[in-house]
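Hypothesis: this fold can be encoded by more than one sequence.
Test: take the C-alpha cells below, design a sequence, compare later.
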C-alpha cells in the first residue's frame, strides 16, 4: 500500500482558506472516535469531547449543513433543539473536508481518513492511468474500486473486532462501487422509505451489546440542487427529515447514542453572468487546459503538458478576488486534502485547484449541462458549505 508523500510546494499566494479540521473535528474523525470508544483496535478518538457508548448510530442527511439548521428553526424544531444551548446540549459543527461534496465526504466518513489518503478528491477527478475524468459519485468510467481506494472501512474493522455493524439505506446503493469502498462492512439493509430506515436502524442498534449502525437520507440535497435552499420543496424535505430524526431518537435502546451529521452544506447561486462563469465560453480560463474536473465551486484544472504555471497565473488573475486559487503542491502543503497525500492520489488532484469564497461558480454549459443548471451548489471551504452538524441524542 502506498505511503503518504509530500512534494515541495511553490510559495503559497493565498493563505486565508479555512482548512478543514482534520484530526480533531472533521467528518473523517467521527467513526474512528466512536469505534475507539468501543475498543476497536487501531482507532483513535479525534473528537475528544464525545462520551463513549456501547451502541452508536450515525444518521447522515445529505446536504443539510450546520448553517441551514440554524437558519430554519420553524421547519426543523427537533434538530434545532439539539443545537448548543444553555440547557447543555453538546451539538457542534464538524468540517466536511475538501472538497465538500458527497463522494469525498462519504469516503471520509466510512474510512475515517481524509481525502488525501482515501483518494476520492472530488466530484470528478483525473484517473492518471487513463487520462480520463472519473465521476466518483457515479463511478464512471468504471475502475477497480479497491485499487482506487484500498484502505479498509471503519465498519470492516469494527466488524472484525466483534462489533455488530450495519448500514440502512436505499436499496439502490447496495452494490454501488462507492458503497464498497466507503461504507461496506457488516450487513447492508435496503429500505425504501425514511420511516422504514429509522425503524430498522433502531432494531439493528439494539441487536447486540456493541453495535455501529449507519443510516442515510438523500432528498434534502436533491431538492436543494434542483430548487434551492429555502425553497418550498427544500423546506418540505427539511420538515420531513426533522420528523425522521425524532422518530429514530424515540426508539433508541439503552446504552446508545445517535449522531446526526451531513456530508456538506449548500449555497444558492444566482443565474446571472457575474455569478456563473461559463468555462466553455471563456477563452482565458480555457487556455492551456486539457480537462476541467471537480464541480462549480471546487475545480480541479488539468493543464496540457508544460502549461501548468501559465494556467495558474491566468486563473489567479481572472478569479483571484472570488476564488482561492492554488497549484497542486500549494493546496497539498496548505492541508486542503489532509495532513498528507498518498502517492497514488497525487496525480488525481488538479494542476490548479480553485475553491470559491464568493457567491460564484464556474459552470461548463456544454460539458456539464445538468450540473450547470443546479440552483444549490457546494464544494468549497466557506462555512455554509463546509460546516456540518454533529448533533447527539441519548436515551
Amino acid at each position: 500500500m502506498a505511503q503518504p508523500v509530500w512534494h515541495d510546494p511553490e510559495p503559497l499566494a493565498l493563505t486565508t482558506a479555512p482548512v478543514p479540521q482534520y484530526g480533531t473535528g472533521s467528518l473523517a474523525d467521527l467513526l474512528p472516535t466512536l469505534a475507539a470508544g468501543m475498543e476497536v483496535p487501531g482507532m483513535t478518538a479525534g473528537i475528544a469531547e464525545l462520551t463513549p457508548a456501547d451502541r452508536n448510530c450515525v444518521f447522515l442527511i445529505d446536504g443539510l449543513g450546520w448553517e441551514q439548521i440554524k437558519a430554519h428553526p420553524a421547519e426543523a424544531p427537533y434538530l434545532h433543539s439539539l443545537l448548543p444551548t444553555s440547557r447543555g446540549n453538546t451539538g457542534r459543527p464538524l468540517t466536511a473536508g475538501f472538497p465538500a461534496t458527497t463522494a469525498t465526504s462519504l469516503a471520509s466518513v466510512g474510512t475515517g481518513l481524509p481525502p488525501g489518503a482515501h483518494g476520492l478528491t472530488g466530484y470528478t477527478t483525473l484517473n492518471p492511468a487513463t487520462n480520463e475524468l472519473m465521476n466518483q459519485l457515479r463511478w464512471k468510467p468504471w475502475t477497480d474500486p479497491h485499487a482506487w481506494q484500498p484502505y479498509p472501512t471503519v465498519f470492516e474493522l469494527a466488524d472484525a473486532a466483534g462489533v455488530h455493524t450495519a448500514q440502512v439505506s436505499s436499496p439502490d446503493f447496495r452494490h454501488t462501487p462507492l458503497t464498497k469502498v466507503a461504507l461496506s462492512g457488516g450487513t447492508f439493509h435496503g429500505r425504501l422509505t425514511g420511516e422504514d430506515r429509522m425503524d430498522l436502524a433502531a432494531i439493528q442498534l439494539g441487536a447486540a451489546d456493541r453495535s455501529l449502525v449507519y443510516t442515510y437520507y438523500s432528498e434534502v440535497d436533491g431538492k436543494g440542487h434542483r430548487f434551492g435552499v429555502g425553497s418550498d420543496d427544500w423546506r418540505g424535505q427539511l420538515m420531513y427529515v426533522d420528523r425522521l430524526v425524532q422518530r429514530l431518537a424515540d426508539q433508541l435502546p439503552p446504552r446508545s447514542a445517535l449522531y446526526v451529521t451531513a456530508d456538506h452544506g449548500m449555497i444558492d447561486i444566482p443565474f446571472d453572468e457575474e455569478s456563473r462563469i461559463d468555462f466553455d465560453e471563456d477563452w482565458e480560463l480555457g487556455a492551456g487546459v486539457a480537462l476541467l474536473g471537480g464541480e462549480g465551486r471546487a475545480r480541479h484544472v488539468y493543464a496540457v503538458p508544460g502549461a501548468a504555471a501559465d494556467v495558474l497565473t491566468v486563473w489567479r488573475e481572472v478569479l483571484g478576488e472570488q476564488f482561492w486559487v492554488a497549484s497542486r503542491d500549494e493546496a497539498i502543503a496548505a492541508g486542503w486534502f489532509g495532513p498528507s497525500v498518498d502517492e497514488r492520489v497525487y496525480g488525481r488532484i488538479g494542476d490548479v485547484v480553485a475553491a470559491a469564497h464568493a457567491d460564484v461558480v464556474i459552470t461548463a454549459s456544454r460539458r456539464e449541462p445538468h450540473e450547470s443548471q443546479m440552483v444549490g451548489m457546494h464544494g468549497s471551504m466557506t462555512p455554509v458549505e463546509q460546516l456540518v452538524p454533529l448533533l447527539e441524542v441519548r436515551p
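The chain has two domains: 4-8+269-377, 27-120+138-267+382-393. Residues 27-120+138-267+382-393 form a domain with the Alkaline Phosphatase, subunit A fold (CATH 3.40.720.10).
Hypothesis status: open.
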